[in-house]
């Protein structure tokens, strides 16, 4: 990007209804709340989308305020590289970072993957999420999605509607051929961890995501794990990855946690170097959020970029999904 270009900034919030509802261990929601940033140079505009997450102390208002606070720095020439230290990791920086990448691509006439020194992206298999519910309801949802290659099963609801061991057994019976990932969203405890991991292993689950609450991770160190365990809420960026050896086998990298594609790509390199498998994840959002994550997902062990599939409708010009395959973005969307 040319130096000292005074960029214009536009920030908007939008609500996208979810198809039905989306339930995890922390609760249920019926809409996705997103914030969209547009950066302009007077000729072209770049876009980025983020999802403020209450679990991380974020709200739509706080994210918009953090983005609006960068107006002076943008006018003074703040660029994408400077952004990495000007703002902390999180949703606000993600929207700005992705808007910078999109604007750079438009200004240069080169796709983001070239600017980042990456190969051209290819279609990928994405997981499809089954929300937390009673075992019979989850089995019904899994049966409808049983033709998909990879299912992500939300657990973390012991003591409610049948228990997690019954849930995963019911899902496996309903989708016998699908590869299964489990996400407990911090919903298990030291006391039931071993039994739940054993039940997941019996069901052929290949990865269990964030079984324990953040701060309880040390309980995973040194224990015999029949299934690889993946960090999500406990690891946001490269700094928070330090010291996780022995606790986790994999890490879920989400742009809303890392603060954008720039840090996400650097984190993926660091995690791979340290022996972690990568799951490229997402929040429930539109294709504008998924498009940059597609570049991260190219080298990931698993891609979980089904956010638009969970919405009642996606934004115009969204990504193409065909069964379990997700295709890279067209330039009109992003990058």
Number of strands: 14
Radius of gyration: 20 Å
CATH superfamily label of the largest domain? Enolase-like C-terminal domain
The CATH topology of the largest domain is given as: TIM Barrel
- Poorly predicted ranges: none
Largest sheet: 8 strands, parallel
How many structural domains in the coordinates? 2
Mean pLDDT: 95
Strand content: 15-25%
The level 1 CATH classification of the largest domain is Alpha Beta
* Oligomeric state of the chains in view: single chain
Helix count, DSSP H or I runs of 4 or more residues: 12
Strand order of the largest sheet: 5-6-7-8-9-10-11-12
Structural class: alpha/beta
* N→C terminal distance: 15 Å
CATH second-level architecture of the largest domain? Alpha-Beta Barrel
> How helix-rich are the residues, as a percent range?
25-40%
Looking at the structure, what is the overall shape?
globular
**What is the N-to-C order of secondary-structure elements (H for helix, E for strand)?**
EEEHHHHHEEHEHEHEEHEHHEHEEE
């Amino acid at each position: 990007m040319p130096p000292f270009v005074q960029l214009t900034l536009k920030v908007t919030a939008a609500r996208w209804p979810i198809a039905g509802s989306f339930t995890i261990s922390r609760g249920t929601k019926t809409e996705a709340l997103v914030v969209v940033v547009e950066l302009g140079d007077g000729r072209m505009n770049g876009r980025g989308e983020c999802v403020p997450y209450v679990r991380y102390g974020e709200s739509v208002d706080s994210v918009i305020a953090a983005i609006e606070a960068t107006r002076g720095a943008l006018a003074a020439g703040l660029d994408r590289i400077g952004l990495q230290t000007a703002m902390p990791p999180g949703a606000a920086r993600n929207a700005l970072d992705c808007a910078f990448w999109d604007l750079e691509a438009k200004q240069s006439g080169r796709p983001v993957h070239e600017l980042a020194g990456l190969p051209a992206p290819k279609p990928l298999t994405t997981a499809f999420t089954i929300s937390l519910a009673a075992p019979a309801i989850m089995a019904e949802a899994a049966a409808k999605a049983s033709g998909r290659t990879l299912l992500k099963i939300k657990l973390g609801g012991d003591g409610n509607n049948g228990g997690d061991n019954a849930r995963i057994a019911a899902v496996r019976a309903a989708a016998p051929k699908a590869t299964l990932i489990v996400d407990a969203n911090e919903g298990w405890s030291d006391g039931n961890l071993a039994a739940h991991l054993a039940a997941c292993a019996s069901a052929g689950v290949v990865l269990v995501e964030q079984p324990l609450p953040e701060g309880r991770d040390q309980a995973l160190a040194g224990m015999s794990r029949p299934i690889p365990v993946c960090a999500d809420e406990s690891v946001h960026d490269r700094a928070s990855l330090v010291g996780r050896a022995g606790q986790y086998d994999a890490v879920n990298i989400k742009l809303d946690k890392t603060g954008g594609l720039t840090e996400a790509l650097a984190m993926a390199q660091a995690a791979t170097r340290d022996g972690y498998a990568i799951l490229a994840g997402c929040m429930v959002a539109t294709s504008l959020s998924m498009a940059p994550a597609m570049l991260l997902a190219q080298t990931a062990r698993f891609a979980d970029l089904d956010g638009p599939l969970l919405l009642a409708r996606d934004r115009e010009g969204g990504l193409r999904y065909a069964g379990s395959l997700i295709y890279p973005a067209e330039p009109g969307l992003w990058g």
